[in-house]
Amino acid sequence: DAKTTQPNSMESNEEEPVHLPCNHSTISGTDYIHWYRQLPSQGPEYVIHGLTSNVNNRMASLAIAEDRKSSTLILHRATLRDAAVYYCIPVPTGNQFYFGTGTSLTVIP
Amino acid sequence: EPEVTQTPSHQVTQMGQEVILRCVPISNHLYFYWYRQILGQKVEFLVSFYNNEISEKSEIFDDQFSVERPDGSNFTLKIRSTKLEDSAMYFCASSGSFGTGELFFGEGSRLTVL
Prior knowledge:
The structure holds 2 protein chains of 2 kinds.
Chain A: E1 9-13, E2 18-23, E3 32-38, E4 45-50, E5 55-56, E6 61-64, E7 70-75, E8 84-91, E9 103-108
Parallel strand pairs in A: 1-9
Antiparallel strand pairs in A: 2-7, 3-4, 3-8, 5-6, 6-7, 8-9
Chain B: E1 5-7, E2 10-13, E3 19-24, E4 31-37, E5 44-50, E6 53-57, E7 65-68, E8 75-79, E9 88-95, E10 104-105, E11 109-113
Parallel strand pairs in B: 2-11
Antiparallel strand pairs in B: 1-3, 3-8, 4-5, 4-9, 5-6, 7-8, 9-10, 9-11
C-alpha cells in the first residue's frame, strides 16, 4: 500500500481558501487518490477522488501533481463546518481503504 | 439521499459477553466494510465483504470477530467474548464499486466494554 504524508494539523480563517497537501510518493499508476474527512463524533465522509486529472465537485477540488506523487485538496471557502480531520488515501483497484492519521483542520471564525 | 444505518448507536456490555452490531448498507451496494476507531486513535480497517464472503481482513479481525449478511439487507459484526480493549466506535461502510468508488459510512456504533 502506498504510504502517505500529511501535516498533523492546519489552521484556516473562515471564508478563506484552504490547501491541504498530501505526499504519496510510492503510489502506483492505477491507484485512485481518495480524500475523506471526519467531523467530530461522526463517521468518515467522502470528499472527492481522482486518478490523474484535477477534479471538482460541490465540496472541494482535487489537484493531482503530474507525477502523481502528491495531491492537494482545496476547500475554496472554509466554513466552521469544515473543521475536521482530512484523510488522503491512495486506493489500488480492488483493494481496501486504509486511513492514516490525517490532517486536523481548525477553522478560525 | 441514501444512507448507511447502524444499530445500536451505543451498547454497553460486560467483559466476556457477545455483541452483535448491525448495519443496513445502501440497497444497491455490493461491497461492505467494518472499521473501528478507538477513542483518540485512527480509523482502522477490520474486514471487507463481497458476494457473501470475506474478501479481505486485517490482523485485528481474528477468531473473536465474525461477519454475516443474514438476509438481503443487514450486515452484522459479531464480537465474541468481548474484552476491555474492544471498546471503540465501530463504523460500517458500503460501496457500489470496489476501490474506485465512494465509501459511504454509517454514523457508527459505540461499544463500551466494562
